[in-house]
Amino acid sequence: MALPPPRVARVARLAMAALVVAVVAGGAYRARRNLALHKPVRMSSVLLGSPEGAVNGFVEWGSYAVHSRGGGPAWLLVDLEGTFPLGEVRVFGRGDGYHTDSPSPITVELSGDGLTFTRAAVCDRVVTQVSPCAAKLGGAPARYVRLTHPTHLVLSEVEVLGAR
């Protein structure tokens, strides 16, 4: 069997490289982006950590990013700085074994104006870093996402994914 001429082999390698780039780029294009990443965030109270740590794109492995004071009610509010159709909110809790400090249920609320909120989902089990709550939102439009709990919140990361 004869080897292909060098020019044919080179063209074949370039074509294969272009195909790989197209497949990878297509997958990245279809991936839902985290709309909460580095967006303005406020919290009802802060005992430890920083609310900005909950939207920095990193699950604060082993502990948490922000812990509210007890005595609630507690809330964390993310301003997406624009109205988007939302597909899912992922809530990551503690990862250091003190999971009862990451209380449930956590209610996910949505708003277009930051004043009137609608209950969209409930995380009704203890959330951890390994087992986050993934609340489906079905494309509901919102600018503001608020997480609430009757007493306190302990969060490692909050991701708000756009709808596909």
How is this structure best described in words?
With 164 residues, the chain is of the alpha+beta class. The protein has two domains: 1-31; 41-162, Sandwich (Jelly Rolls), CATH 2.60.120.260. Helix content is 15%, strand content 38%. It has one helix and nine strands; from the N terminus they run H-E-E-E-E-E-E-E-E-E. The strands form two sheets. Strands 1, 4, 5, 6, 7 and 9 form a six-stranded antiparallel beta sheet that branches. A three-stranded antiparallel beta sheet has the order 2-3-8, with no helix packed on it. It is elongated. The N and C termini lie far apart (49 Å).
The profile of the biggest β sheet is: 6 strands, antiparallel
Order of helices and strands: HEEEEEEEEE
Number of helices: 1
Provide the low-confidence segments as ranges.
22-30
Q: What is the residue-mean pLDDT, rounded to a whole number?
A: 85
How would you classify the helix and strand content by structural class?
alpha+beta
Brief digest:
The protein is an alpha+beta fold and 164 residues long.
How is the topology of this model organized?
Blueprint: H1 6-30, E1 41-43, E2 48-49, E3 66-67, E4 74-92, E5 106-111, E6 118-123, E7 133-149, E8 154-155, E9 157-162
Antiparallel strand pairs: 1-4, 2-3, 3-8, 4-7, 4-9, 5-6, 5-7
